[in-house]
Sequence to fold (720 residues):
Amino acid sequence: MEKVYNFCAGPAMIPAEVLSKVQDELVNWNGLGTSVMEISHRSQDFIAVAEQSEKDLRELLSIPDNYHVLFCHGGARGQFAAVPMNLLGDSDTADYMDGGYWAHSAVEEAKKYCAPNVVDITCERDGKKAIIPASEWSLSDDAAYVHFCPNETIDGIEIRDLPQTDKPIVADMSSTILSREIDISKYGVIYAGAQKNIGPAGLTVVIVRDDLLGKAKQILPSILDYSVLVDKESMFNTPPTFAWYLAGEVFKWLKSIGGVAEMQQRNEAKAKVLYDFIDSSDFYRNEVHSDNRSLMNVPFQLKNPELDALFLEQAKAAGLVALKGHRAVGGMRASIYNAMPIEGVQALVNFMAAFEQQHA
Amino acid sequence: MEKVYNFCAGPAMIPAEVLSKVQDELVNWNGLGTSVMEISHRSQDFIAVAEQSEKDLRELLSIPDNYHVLFCHGGARGQFAAVPMNLLGDSDTADYMDGGYWAHSAVEEAKKYCAPNVVDITCERDGKKAIIPASEWSLSDDAAYVHFCPNETIDGIEIRDLPQTDKPIVADMSSTILSREIDISKYGVIYAGAQKNIGPAGLTVVIVRDDLLGKAKQILPSILDYSVLVDKESMFNTPPTFAWYLAGEVFKWLKSIGGVAEMQQRNEAKAKVLYDFIDSSDFYRNEVHSDNRSLMNVPFQLKNPELDALFLEQAKAAGLVALKGHRAVGGMRASIYNAMPIEGVQALVNFMAAFEQQHA
Fold:
């Protein structure tokens, strides 16, 4: 198949223009006669990539000067350990808001390092899955920080509000970063695995407020130590250079289309097309309350689950791939990250309508 | 410049045939209409990549069945922390043989978790840098394991012998793996950052003997926990899929040329051309005793260091790039990893001879 629309939840689509440029220059980058993945991370050429990518990300997210930007190894799950080991200081607890699979996975790792105060923030509203408003979250007095995951990829749940607290707010933004405007100054630490809206898997972006450095536990592996990474400008060890370069190309692309504000508008438009269609149909349904529907991941069920396999098979034949839902919730899931054009969502809706007509 | 010979110490050259194939299929891999970096690590297509790459690596290195192969995040420096946290068990010491910059860096990280017994194994032999024979290394009785680095990239030192011990031998093989034949059964753990002989930076290969699992400290981040990675088949979190795929292509290439035995012959031939030329010249010199000269990294000095800059400039103009030595030793360094063809070494020697003739 020559070209498909790829709804994979991650590793997800890379913008087509970016991938095409990367292909063109893969064996001879910058006129050097080598691939970008074959040069030293300490070379002038790569340092220019590193600096430009940080500059572009700072511009895209309006990152204040008192925040550091780190490009790390280890994925978001690495940060599940790094966050408590970097931020707990003398405290032995932190608030963990549990809104789904990923927030809960962070809890499990945090338990190695502290006694987390775990708060179930899920609820039912109008018969749909929803999240308790952040103003009502039960925070503890002695927590070192408040951790949450603003987008649960499996359930298709998004949290847009923040609690009122003077504690640092820490957010796993793997599926949120760059998808909509965020006020970075409200957070202590933001981290994100790259494989949704940034670039290839294996790279992790961390944005950390200056005053939170210097509290790392002695047992923290240096590759996860924010102070070390700040000090060494993310080059304590050889970084995943190719993924970093590709992330930089994604940032340039995002700037070229108008930045995060424009991206948010496009993402809202894409999500609206799909949710509106699902809501207008008796054949498909989405279980999430409109307050908390994710812009990025749209799970949906067929009224008759016996048709799931046929749906997936015919969708694939129509060039609409990776629509199978996570095993925890079943059904389908359309992940419509930044790189998914609205034409892809329209093609999906057209297919869904035709499938419904055939099988309703 | 269209094509150069790239002597970078890492991230290093990728075999030209591999890079060309990767470029061809970058936007449409396996006929899926997507890039390999855009598909789920849990998809059948990627699992086939993961399985084949492990199978090929096992075949290339004759890895016995009682060893696990892991594809990890974090680089070799991640393993500097992972090794003590996985292997110390109840012991509070391990033997660290210090033969150079990288072995020493492993010591610094190990100090977070134990009181390492650090043994300086460097010596001078016939006025050259050398390493004390492994049979004479001072091992301690209560060490949980013996750690060493068989190839020091900065000094251009290689260690080919092993100590007699019933303790697990742990080796940082970042610059050794796949370059020459190794008897895996003599080791407890072998680890290697990918960016020398395997693939792009950001991937780490770990080979661990079965009986060493299950001793991990509770504080070990799960992404570095060998038992977790074994249990989840290196997919506890999203692995660096593109780097893994590319490593698999490098393994296929290595098999296609005849495997590690053939590669070792080629590497020995390449190194001989370069060392023989250096030894025949009064204009260049290498400081390492022939007992311990690295097959992979050949540092050399010009008699007159004032010519260094000119040498580098003219070499670059001749398509011979990344020859600058590490700042710790100065001069030049030619890294001639697996992907460097003998034609590249010959071109370097020809250039060196011409430069000598011009400036001697």
